[in-house]
Amino acid sequence: MPVEWIYLSPHFDDIALSCGGLVWEQVQAGHRVSIWTICGGLPPKRALSAFAISLHQRWETGVEAVRVRQEEDIAACKVLGAAYRHYPIPDCIYRPENPRIPHYYASEESLWGKLHPNEAKNAVRRLSQLFARDIPAQAQVVCPLALGKHVDHLLTRKAAERLHRPLWYYPDYPYVLKSRAELEKLEAQGWMPSSFAITAAGLEAWQAAIAAYTSQVSTFWRSLEDMRLAISAYAQGRVILWQQPAQPASLC
Predict the structure, then answer these.
(1) Residue 249 pLDDT greater than 70, yes or no
(2) pTM
């Protein structure tokens, strides 16, 4: 029987990077699959931080960075056969929207560890309310483990957990590569890993979806060939999703 799967992606490329092959396999099996990008909104009408400008330069997108990335995401979802949804929340590098308040995340260091105090409660609550409104009761929801503790990944996970419903969790690639100890800790706490087989065709679709995010490839790899080799080495013919025990583990 077809199942509806909803993947919560903090940024446009997180699902393709972390579990694109599984999305493709589920679509091929007849399931309804959609990828919801949480921080997919246009930047507010305020001056960008020097940090955001430097990222636009690295991505070679200029001020149209978000529109470019939206188009890349649509192309990647087409490769995977998944529907897409872009929430209007801006990426952390553009927040807050109020031009009278300094940017919350204006450096590389600020992206990791904890949400800004002004967002830690209100932003999580507002996003959770959107999820409660939009996610069908019978859908299988897959959210990030937030390995590496990127603030937008934390925001997404915390909001999803406020729904108090069963969730699947995906290890965030590439941060999972340095998070073996965190995964071992989860397993010791009773979290349950489930392995989903990925075919050669699924791996190829996974790699093609990542390649669709043209602006982002150079962030992680020197070339598309390096990317394909890295994803093949990581996949090992499967994607692992996690389910938590009855008592959620702390994100602190």
Answers:
(1) no
(2) 0.95
